[in-house]
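Quick one before lunch.
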Amino acid sequence: MQQTKMNPQNISVTDFMLSRRSVLIKNMNAPGPDNSELETILTIATRVPDHRKLEPWRLLVLQGDARRDFGEKLAAVKAKKEDVTAIQVSIEKDCFMRAPLVIVVIASPVEHKTPEVEQILSAGAVCQNINIAAGSLGYASQWVTGWSCLDTDAQRAIGLSENEFVAGYLYIGSSDEKPQDRQRPDLESVATHWSGNKT
Ligand SMILES: Cc1cc2nc3c(=O)[nH]c(=O)nc-3n(C[C@H](O)[C@H](O)[C@H](O)COP(=O)(O)O)c2cc1C
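Model of the flavin mononucleotide complex:
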């Protein structure tokens, strides 16, 4: 039976969800999750709403040298683009070294009665579940994207099929700093009670 580390504040799920925040990658460092914690994160990641159980996503785990290898594959694609500097290519190479663990969430929608948009929303849920799982174990995380997510050449270089794209790079590490909260939506303007279709 997996040992579950309590979240650092030992708070309720509700209080955790009310206070959790993403942490900027530049504020992350080692250590990352151990093997058992990684398994927990991956299990929670894939425990998402998924209409008709299509599993329209898959995950790639980048740790250790695999982070550099993955970055080098994308850097080689970037180097062939127009107006790209040597510095940009070098940044790309080291991009995934910035945190001890990166989980690449790949959306894999298929032709099906379940609309593509629903399948992609399920991939988004995988991304956010990773944020929540990592935070619940006391780790910092951030969901980021970038040029390579929707670039066809990049997709081929990292072995994606034609129907696939990167829904998110989930960076996970440790951090001493608790980020300040960001401004949150005004609930009254984004959530209203339906009272008929009045304009
Ligand atoms: C699909 C998606 C892509 C994002 N890409 C980036 C990104 O490339 N760089 C970035 O700084 N934040 C990006 N963000 C924003 C952060 O992941 C996060 O929303 C923000 O830091 C605040 O999150 P929090 O409410 O968890 O604190 C992205 C968010 C989403 C949903």
